[in-house]
Design a protein that fits this description.
nine-stranded antiparallel beta sheet; 2 domains; Glycosyltransferase; Beta-galactosidase, Chain A, domain 5; alpha+beta; 17 helices; five-stranded antiparallel beta sheet; 30% helix
Length: 616
């Protein structure tokens, strides 16, 4: 038998249908960590790779993040046999005289992030992690947490970490200045964009940190905080509204939209559905909420997301440092355990007793105005057109935020070589080069508008080159129009969707003037030029380990040169599973839209994307 790396996944083989299945999953995910706990229990070192913060903080991350699953498991009556290890680690890690001390605290320091899990544990299960400590240990732990909450937290979802620490201190009777808690809560609410959406700080982006951080922590607050009823109701109301939009970031198979940073946290993306249950917010019928929740964890159970010893890897669909961020240490992926929050609920809660309902049918495109997105539900997939989000201070930021289209089924590629234009993927993106070697993509936008289910952006790959891009749904296709004004000749490459590549060259391609198609073993992917002067179709196989889900992929592209002046490029792209009626779709690509009519539509109906509408 040939070894299947997916079998190392601690979720592999678990049916993940019931509350008991999920309780087992928490212990199965934790068990591979045991050999890596230090003797004093405070440090969990899972690998040699580094992060932007020091090793001691990374070791704390490995210790603290599993608590996001362990604590609700215990709160709901589930068995976790290693509380003695956690108590010992907590006492030693906060003790400056102990060799395993986590280190001194500072403003905007990673330790502040991880201590939120400790606060959560104190608030929800003090009988396991606080009450058995002796008075000296309690004093040491309290002093460390009190010092942490006095510091400055980054101006984004981090401000919830002080709130969570404070919830724990309050539960165990440690006094502190509540004024600072209220100040941060007020500042967090100021990130409200409307329609249930937040920003994650003063930035032009709304990513998975909105469901798995801003809403997740806010809903925890509604359950664990004392008083503050008006704020709690606002948190619940926003989450109730947000659910109607964020469901369009989940495919019918449970896969989440691969978009933005921190994809290494994997099934944390489904934590929002569990947080609704924890807070008793029936934003959709319980059966639908449970369906979104359970499908998501099952999707992850068959994927090789762990190393051979069962420790979760940094990566997404497989171990992959290329897509990681500078703040990812080997322990970072254990934020995924935030998924298990509803284990704190009793087995007779209506969330657990409900039968899973399938995803509703959405035949028409759905505008997600606040995010600058338009979602299309295609067979086996959700395709999301995007304009208005950006991040310019992170490796892979263009790929994570600025592509024209994202997908639950096909994810996206990260460029692996920025000095090899012809080897670049440009999936869901237009790449441009003025020397045939280096290249530019959409990165920072000057304008981003939404008009119904259509999007517009204006961007400059160079200071002297202006591109206007319009994005239109045409299910299962989508259309991209680019009007390029350049003073010099440029080469262009534009990509469709990346699909899985089979071994032994079992896939078949078509490439000709004006189109390229890959016929894979699981999916087909096509790109068609609707421009007056068609580009050349090119069927390529991107550099391995660049796609988030599949280590090897196939990608159709259009390639061509443009002269100085104004050029209009029009593209249609789609991808479908092979068992769907792809032949009919392939034979009927959409017609080229009337650009003048489209411009009139935006003049009359276009509004600035709220996520983009920020003075910077």
């Amino acid at each position: 038998m040939i070894y299947d790396p997916a079998r190392a996944n601690p979720l592999f083989g678990n049916p993940l249908r019931t509350r008991d299945d999920l309780a087992k999953a928490v212990n199965d995910l934790f068990a591979p960590l045991l050999p890596y706990f230090s003797e004093g229990g405070a440090r969990v070192r899972l690998g040699a790779a580094g992060a932007i913060f020091d090793r001691a903080a990374a070791d704390l991350e490995g210790f603290a993040r599993p608590l996001w699953g362990i604590v609700p498991l215990a709160a709901g009556g589930g068995h976790f046999p290693h509380w003695d290890l956690y108590r010992r680690g907590l006492a030693n890690g906060t003790n400056p005289a102990h060799p395993e001390y986590w280190g001194d605290l500072a403003d905007r320091n990673q330790r502040l992030v991880e201590l939120a899990a400790v606060g959560f544990a104190l608030a929800l299960v003090p009988e396991h992690i606080w009450e058995p400590l002796d008075d000296s240990q309690k004093k040491t732990v309290a002093a460390y947490l009190l010092a942490a909450r006095e510091l400055e937290f980054i101006d984004n979802n981090w401000k919830f970490f002080r709130v969570l620490i404070d919830l724990g201190l309050e539960r165990v009777g440690v006094a502190f200045d509540h004024g600072k808690t209220v100040a941060y809560l007020d500042e967090l609410e100021a990130f409200d964009l409307g329609d249930g959406w937040y920003r994650d700080g003063p930035v032009r982006r709304v990513d998975h940190y909105i469901p798995f951080a801003m809403h997740f922590y806010g809903l925890i607050y509604t359950v664990l905080a004392r008083g503050d009823e008006a704020r709690k109701e606002r948190f619940r109301d926003r989450a109730r509204t947000f659910a109607g939009d964020i469901r369009h970031w989940f495919g019918p198979d449970g896969a989440a939209l691969a978009f933005g940073r921190s994809q290494a946290y994997r099934f944390a993306a489904g934590g929002f559905w569990g947080a609704l249950a924890f807070a008793g917010v029936e934003a959709l019928p319980w059966a639908e909420i449970k369906g979104y929740y359970m499908r998501h964890i099952r999707w992850w159970s068959a994927i090789p997301i762990a190393d051979r010893d069962g420790v979760l890897s940094v990566g997404y669909g497989y171990p992959n440092l290329l897509m990681s961020e500078s703040y990812n240490s080997p322990g970072s992926p254990y934020w995924a355990l935030k998924f298990f929050l509803p284990l704190a609920l009793a087995a007779d809660h209506p969330f657990w007793t409900a039968a899973e309902a399938p995803q509703p049918v959405f035949p028409e495109p759905i505008a997600l105005k606040q995010a600058g997105m338009v979602a299309m539900h295609t067979p086996g997939n959700v395709v999301v057109l995007s304009s208005g989000q950006q991040h310019d201070k992170m490796r892979g930021a263009n790929e994570k935020y600025s592509k024209f289209v994202y997908s639950t089924r096909y994810a996206f590629n990260i460029e692996a070589d920025d000095r090899n234009f012809t080897a670049a993927s440009f999936d869901g993106m237009l790449g441009l080069s003025d020397d045939g070697v280096h290249f530019r993509m959409r990165e920072i936008m000057e304008e981003a508008l939404i008009a119904g289910d259509r999007l517009y952006s204006r961007w400059r790959p160079w200071n002297d080159v202006t591109i206007e891009t319009w994005l239109l749904p045409a299910n299962p296709w989508h259309i991209r129009i680019h009007r390029i004004a350049t003073p010099r000749a440029l080469s262009t490459i534009e990509g469709g969707f990346a699909i899985e590549r089979a071994d032994f060259n079992a896939d078949r391609s078509e490439q000709a003037e004006g189109h390229a198609v890959w016929h894979g073993q699981t999916d087909i992917s096509a790109i068609v030029d609707l421009s007056p002067h068609p580009r050349t179709g090119h069927a390529m196989s991107p550099i391995p380990n660049t796609n988030l889900i599949h280590a090897k992929t196939l990608l159709p592209q259009l390639r061509g040169d443009i002269a100085p002046g104004i050029t209009v490029l029009v593209t249609a792209a789609m991808a479908l599973p092979v068992h769907e009626n792809w032949a009919q779709a392939l034979d009927n690509p959409p017609a080229c839209p009337d650009l003048g009519e489209l411009e009139r539509h935006f003049r009359e109906n276009g509004v600035r994307v709220p996520a983009f509408a920020l003075l910077m």
